Amino acid sequence: MQNVLIIGGSYFVGRVFVEELRNHSEYAIYVMNRGNAPLNLVGVEEIVCDRHDALSIGAFVPELEWHTVVDFCAYEPDDIDLLLYNLPSSVEHYIYISTATVYQNSLDLPMKEDFPKLTGPLPGPHGDYAYKKWLTELKLRELCEEKGIAHTLLRPAFIYGKYNYAPRESYFFDLIAENRPIVVPPLPQALFSVVSVWDVANVCIACLGNEKVFNSAFNVASEELISCDRIIEVLEEITSSKLDVQRMSIADIDSQRIPLLFPLEEQLIYSGSLLQETLTYKYMPFLEGMRRTYNWWLYVTKCETLTL
Question: At 83, is the secondary structure helix, strand, or coil?
Fold first, then answer.
């Protein structure tokens, strides 16, 4: 058995990764988090531990040889420092889930792994998120080189799918369920890259101990380019209905604070071809991923209704 230590693992991508990894019997699965959302899954050992508490890491993480550490929730360099300096045993491979937003804005599209990175925080209330992720990547590279650990950096584009806590897909599903109009900007619209949560999870599995991805960074992004109108087309197909769509200027959308959580003006297009070629991986079509997501949302909504 190969021991895999998952940091996070209770929410969204981490949770789907754990579910998918259970189908691979060669791995012993250990999930470390604060225990706020227990998984209670057969075959998964849960370690209740705060990654920011050095003493807890040393006390509660088993002293095993870790085939791979998969880190879903490091947001700043100190998170890496604390973990790698306090784990009570060795690590062979460290996979870090970063973000495609570490790149500087560019008109040269699609953005590839060697494009210039952020040099400081972006404007806005969460403007330091991507910059800190980039600094965390740098820290991980430094410490892994120091300790002789192979590392892999994964930079997903917009992630959609089941368990998504960002109200992206669910925003549209709720409007459809309530027979309310869906507001979109006029043409031409910004294009952006997405990737399904199932793709991110299965890419992580394909990377476990895989020498092809050692000491490298990869975008995780489907080759399909998505726009607001493409989302409407897919929603109409998966719901078998004609939606009430209203077009509104971007200025009016902003002034009315309509929460379209996708880029309205900026083209955010990333190339996922390097990873696809390295792993011979084929991304899930957007239509299939959204159909899965909608069916999951219907199931959850029905369950919530029955418990009221």
Answer: helix
CB 158 within 8 A of CB 192: yes
Residue 218 phi/psi, 5° resolution? -140, 135
Per the structure block, which two tokens stand in for 151?
């590392």
Question: How is residue 229 written in tokens?
Answer: 């109108």
Q: 3-class SS at 172? A: helix
181 close to 246: Cβ distance less than 8 angstroms: yes
Q: Per DSSP, which regions of 197-234 are E strands? A: 216-220, 225-226
Q: How far apart are CA 56 and CA 84, in angstroms?
A: 13
- The residue among 1, 34, 36, 38 whose CA lies nearest residue 18 is 38
272: left (phi over 0), alpha (psi -120 to 50) or beta: alpha
Task: Report cis status (omega within 30 of 0) of the bond before 188.
Answer: yes
pTM to 2 decimals?
Answer: 0.96
Cβ atoms of 261 and 131 within 8 Å: the answer is no
Q: What is the spatial distance between Cα 38 and Cα 171, in angstroms, rounded to a whole number?
A: 26
The helix (H) or strand (E) run that includes residue 155 is strand 150-156
- Cβ contact 9:15 at 8 Å: yes
Domains and CATH numbers, the chain: 2-307 (3.40.50.720)
pLDDT single digits (tens) 95-137: 999 999 999 999 899 999 999 999 999 887 778 999 999 999 9
pLDDT 10s digits, 4-15: 999 998 889 999
Dihedral sign (CA 229, 230, 235, 240) = positive
**Dihedral, CA atoms, 128, 131, 137, 140, nearest 10 degrees?**
-50
Cα angle 81, 86, 87; round to 5: 110
